[in-house]
Design a protein that fits this description.
The complex is a heterodimer of chains A (518) and B (282). Chain A is of the alpha/beta class and 518 residues long. Chain A has helices at residues 42-50, 74-84, 92-95, 102-111, 118-127, 144-156, 174-191, 202-208, 226-231, 236-245, 310-318, 342-345, 365-370, 381-394, 411-423, 441-458, 469-475, 493-498, 503-511; strands at 2-13, 16-27, 31-35, 57-65, 68-69, 85-88, 162-166, 194-199, 211-216, 219-225, 260-271, 284-295, 299-303, 325-330, 333-335, 348-351, 429-433, 461-466, 478-483, 486-491. Chain A has a domain at 2-245: Rossmann fold (3-Layer(aba) Sandwich). In chain A, the strands form 4 sheets. Chain A has a 6-stranded mixed beta sheet with strand order 6-7-8-3-9-10, sandwiched between helices. A 6-stranded mixed beta sheet of chain A has the order 16-17-18-13-19-20, sandwiched between helices. In chain A, helix 4 packs across helix 5, helix 7 (174-191) packs across helix 19 (503-511) and helix 10 crosses helix 16. The model of chain A has no long low-confidence stretch (mean pLDDT 85). Chain B has one domain: MetI-like fold (Orthogonal Bundle), CATH 1.10.3720.10. The longest helix of chain B is centred in the C-terminal third of the chain and has 37 residues, at 177-213. The radius of gyration of chain B is 21 Å and the shape is elongated. The two termini of chain B are 30 Å apart. Classes of the chains: A alpha/beta (518), B mainly alpha (282). Chains A and B meet through loops of A and helix 7 and helix 8 of B.
Chain lengths: 518, 282
Amino acid sequence: MSLVEIEKLTISFGGKAAVSDLSLSINKGDRFGVVGESGSGKSLTALAVTGLLPENAEVSGAIRFDGAHLPQDEKAMARLRGQRIGMVFQEPMTALNPLLRVGDQIEEALKLTGHEGDTAVAGLLTEVGLEAQHTDRFPHQLSGGQRQRVMIAMALASAPDLMIADEPTSALDVITQRVVLDLIREICDRRQMTLIFISHDMRAVATLCDRIAVLRGGKLIETGPVKEVLSRPADAYTQKLVAATRMAPRQGEPHVAEKTLLEVVHLTRAFPQGGFWRWRQKPLLAVNDVSLRVSAGECLALVGPSGCGKTTLARMIVGLDSATTGQMRFEGTAYRGSDLPPARRADLSLVFQDPFGSFNPRLSITQSLGEPLRLIPDLDPLAREERLMEAIDSVGLDRAMLARFPHEFSGGQRQRLAIARALVTRPSLVVLDEPVSALDVSVRGDVLDLLVKLQNQLGLTYIIISHDLDMVAAMADRVLVMEAGKIVEEGKPDALFAAPQHRLTKALMEARLPDIAA
Amino acid sequence: MNWRSLLKHPGLVIGLSATALFALLALLSLVWTPYPIADISIARRFATPGPEHWLGTDQLGRDMLSLIMSGTLTSFTVGAMAVLIGAGIGVPLGLAAAIYDGPVEWVVLRFSDLAFAFPAVVIAILIATLVGPGASNAVIAIGIFNVPVFAQVARGGALAISTLDFVAAARLAGLSKPMIALRHLLPNIASLIIVQGTIQLSLGILAEAGLSYIGLGTQPPATSLGLMLRDAQSLFLIHPWLSLAPGLAIVVIVIALNIAGDGLRDALDPRLRNRGLANVAG
C-alpha cells in the first residue's frame, strides 16, 4: 500500500521545467532514497510532497498522500504537515531558531500535536541520543551533529507517518554523518516510519535505504530496490554514479625526491577567545605545536574532523595567516605566514574548496587568472598571454573561455579554472583545500585525474586537505591525521588505514560508509 | 544586467521615469523657463492657474511653474552634490575601515558615530554662523551628514565580501590592500552604493527643503522648493495653492526616488531584497 504517490509531476519556473513528468510510488515503511546531482530536482520533489514549493512555481500532475490528494487549502496542508510529515533539513544551524532554547523549540513542535509537557520533550531527546540537560541549551552551544539530532527530534514530535530528510548529513563530518545515518535508520525501524532520504551520496543511500530513485535534470532515470539498482544499474548515468563512488588508486610510479621542500617547525596558532573576562580565557590553539616535512614531488594528505585545525595550518603555509610561535622553511626561506616574501609567493599556491566563492563575479577569467602573475616581475604582455593559454590548456578547457565570466561555468569547470589559477605562476607546491568536496560526484573523478596528470607532468608537490578517506587513499603518498590542532598519527595510506593506531583514526575508519555491493 | 530585465521591476520603471521627468524639467530651467523667475509684477500677483500661467503666480507676481522648475533644479543640485561629497569621502573611509582593522577601523567608526550624532540642521546652523547661509553651505552640511551613512554601507558590504575566497586568492596573488579594495571589493559593493545614493538623494532633497525653509539654505533671488514654502507660509490660509504646489513637488520627487531606489535594489541584487537597506539612513 503506497503512502506517497507522485503521478506525472511537472514543476516549472517561468516556463523552464525543473522537474518533468516524474512518477514515483513510495510504500508504507519504505526507506526511499532519492539520488541526484545538483539541479536534478530532488529537493523540489520533496518540497512538492510537503506543499512548500515557492509561490512562482508552476505545478502540474498529482500527488496523493495516503490515498488522498494533497489539500489545496493552505490551512489543511499545514495541518497535514504538522501531524503526519516531519522534515529534517540540510543545515541545522539555519533551520533552528538561534534565540530559542532547543527544549522550547521541540515543545513548540509538540504543541501542534497536543502532547505537551516536559516528559514528552525528554522522551524525544532520549530517543535521538541527547541528554535531558541539553533542553536548556541554545543551538549555538551544540555541535553540528547534536543540532541535527534536535532537528530529528522536532521532526519526530508529531509521530509522523513520513519523514523527509533533505541532505541531512552533508554539512556534517564523516564520523557524525555515520552516527546520524545510523540514528535515522534505527528510528525508522522502531517507529515503522516511512522515510524519503534525499542525497547526492550513493553510499549514504545504499547504507540507509531499501528503495532508490535516481534523478537527473528533473527526470527519473531509474528506480527500484537499492540492491538491484546499484549492483546492476541499467542506465549509463547510474552506472557512472556507481562507478564514481569507487576511487581507483591514482598514483603512478614513485616520484618522491629526497629533497625537503617545506619544513614546518613547532608551529602554533592561537586565537584569543572572546567573552567579558577575555584576558582570563585561555587562547584557543587551532594549531598546536605541529612539525612536519614535505618532500619534493610528494602528495601529502591532512585528514581530520571539522575544526581540527587543518585549514588553519594550510592558510599559514600559503601565507594567508601568521603563526603565533614556530616557523616554516620553504626551500630555505624561513617565514611565519603572512611575512612570506612576495618573490617566493609565486612558488606556493592554494586551491580553494568552494569553486563558487573563489572567483570575483565582476572580473573576466583572464583578469582573475592573470592576477597571480603580478608576483612575477618583468613579465611582458606576450609572455603573460602565453602563461594564461598554457594554464587553461593544462586543465583541459578551451582558450576561448578566457573571455568569459565566472557565472557562465559549472562547478566542475570552475574548479578546473581555480586549478589553472593556482598553476599560472608555475609553483612547486600546491595546497588543495578539499578540492572536490563541493563538486558533484560524477565530476570529482575527472578533477582528481586532472590533478594527478598535472602532478606527473609538472613535478608538483601537493598538500591535500580532506576528510574524505577514500579520496585520500587514492591520491596520497603519506597521510597525517590531525585532531584538536595536533598531528596524532602518520603513515602511508595503505598501512595506516589497514591498521589504524590512534582512537581518532579508528573512529574515522569505522565511520566510513561501506562500499556499494557489486 | 540588460535593459529588458530592468523592465521587469515596475517600481523601478515608475520611480525612474518620474524622477527623470522632474530632472528634465529642472534641466530645462537652465535654458528656458516660461517667465524669468526674477520677473516681479505686482499687477498679476495671485493669478489662478490658467493658460497664461499654468500654475498661477505668487504674491510677487512670479510665475509658479518657472519657480518650481528652477527650485527643482536647486534641490536636485544640492542633493546630488551632497551625495557626491558623502560617497566620495564615505566610501573610501568605509573601505579603509574594512581592510585595515585596528586603529583605522576604530577612528572611522568613532568619526561616523560623531557625525551621526549631529543632524544636518545642527551642522548647517554651525556653518551658517561661521560663513553665512547659502546653497553651497547646505551642500556641505548635507554632505557631511551623508558621509557616515556611506561609510557604514561600504564597510558592511566590504566586510561581507572580504570573507569570500576570491579575496584570499587576491592576497595570495600579492595584491596590496588598497588594490584589493579597488579591484575586488568596490565593484562588488557598487550596487549597494548606487541604491544608497538614490535614497540619500531623496533625503538630501528633503533636508535642503528644510534648511531653506528655516532660512539657512538657498537665498533669494535664487529659489528652491523649500524657499517657496517659506515665502508662502504666511499666506497659507488665503492662498493655499502657493504652499501646495512646491510641497507636492517635494513629495512626488521624494517618493519617486524612494520607489526607484527600492526597484534598483531588487533589480541589481535580488539577495538584498529582505535586508531593509533603506532603514540605514535612519
